[in-house]
Amino acid sequence: MPKHGKKYRAAVEGVDQTLKFDLSDAVKKAIEAGPAKFDETVDVAVCLGVDPKYSDQMVRGAVTLPHGLGKTIRVAVFCKGDKVAEAKAAGADIVGAEDLVEQIQGGMLDFDKAVATPDMMALVGKIGRVLGPRGLMPNAKTGTVTMNVTDAVKELKAGRVEFRVDKAGVLHAPLGKKSFGADKILENFKALLDTVIRLKPSAAKGTYLKSMAVATTMGPGFKIDTTTVKKFLEG
Fold first, then answer.
1. Directed axis angle between helix 182-198 and helix 23-33, to 10°?
2. Taking the mean position of all CA atoms in its chain, how far away is CA 114?
């Protein structure tokens, strides 16, 4: 078992982690229990009723959170020609083509998200082994392989979250900073859930939202009663 620090042990003391809470209550409790002095991120883990080893049950997508993530997102864009000026005007932090690939091959990874125009993907593929494991590979399914560079960059800067289920069928996503307060975190949560439900694979049978829990970076997790999700989304 991993060893936890004093602040975590103090935060988890008195918390029955077997209990399930109304979705709104779980978020409020998670924010209140966050023990760190820094502004922790509020994260959610959602276990979906899918088997990701089958391609028709993979859940992957992106959502622009209404209140963003509360941090500066550095965006790199792989493009040429007129798109270079467009990317810079949209607020891209790094823009390039062959030169950018060479920098990344040399160890430069000073960005959080990447966008590429379709004609650049053969080039970007050369560094797929570097970008892929770090979640930085542009992908058409998440809108980061596109000719509409302006919208892609602006959405990423505004707090666009990309997500995909892991091998166990669990989806992890950030919902913003603890300092946002419960109301803004809940609005971000609603946007995420609306998108995840919309992306439910037709091949997925049985219960789709099997379980979920919310926690801050350093705090204890609070399980959510999934029967309260429908009422929350309709509210």
1. 130
2. 14
